[in-house]
């Protein structure tokens, strides 16, 4: 099977936006590598395979902080480093990584009941952080609510969003089943 190429590179390298063997960044080659990364990202924009904001850092030094392409298919607004995106569920694995790191450091226990953090949450004494991470909480998926379309245009705080769905009945006993829920 022949691999498709763009700018002489295998498209599979787009997965992480890196060449298969990325060079080590040193003080001597940093500017050159930063320029190569910037050129590479711009080539992806030109090929219409990437549009977004990028932050590349090493240790405490920001190497690239820049927007590429447009924020919509019809280019009405160019992306910047401050562009806000609706990334939805992309945050779930990132949240899980952070929570599990805190658990590993014993700064948080995934067996904790959510009532520890939201004392007035119905069934909060039955639902654990682990249930939330694994979609086994039984909490109703707020995007299935009839008022979701109206509420999604509002800039709700986390507490306000929880108020929208917390009175919905559990779909099942926490830990007994799996059901994807944006409310987790």
Automatic annotation (TrEMBL):
Residues 45-184 form the Beta-lactamase-related domain. It comes from the Eukaryota. SUPFAM superfamilies: beta-lactamase/transpeptidase-like (SSF56601). The keyword Lipid metabolism does not apply. Keywords: Membrane. GO terms for cellular component: membrane. It is found in: Membrane. This is Beta-lactamase-related domain-containing protein. The lineage of its organism: Eukaryota, Metazoa, Spiralia, Gnathifera, Rotifera.
């Amino acid at each position: 099977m022949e691999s498709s190429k763009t700018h002489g590179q295998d498209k599979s390298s787009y997965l992480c936006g890196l060449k298969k063997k990325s060079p080590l960044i040193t003080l001597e080659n940093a500017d050159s590598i930063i320029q190569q990364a910037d050129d590479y990202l711009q080539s992806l924009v030109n090929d219409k395979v990437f549009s977004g904001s990028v932050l590349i850092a090493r240790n405490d030094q920001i190497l690239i902080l820049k927007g590429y392409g447009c924020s919509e298919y019809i280019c009405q607004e160019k992306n910047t480093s401050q562009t806000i995106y609706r990334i939805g569920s992309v945050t779930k694995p990132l949240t899980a990584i952070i929570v599990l790191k805190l658990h590993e450091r014993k700064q948080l226990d995934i067996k904790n009941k959510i009532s520890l953090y939201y004392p007035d949450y119905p069934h909060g004494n039955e639902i654990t952080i682990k249930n939330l991470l694994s979609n086994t909480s039984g909490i109703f998926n707020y995007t299935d609510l009839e008022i979701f379309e109206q509420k999604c245009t509002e800039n709700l705080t986390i507490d306000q969003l929880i108020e929208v769905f917390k009175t919905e009945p559990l779909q099942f006993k926490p830990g007994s089943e799996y059901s994807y829920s944006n409310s987790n």
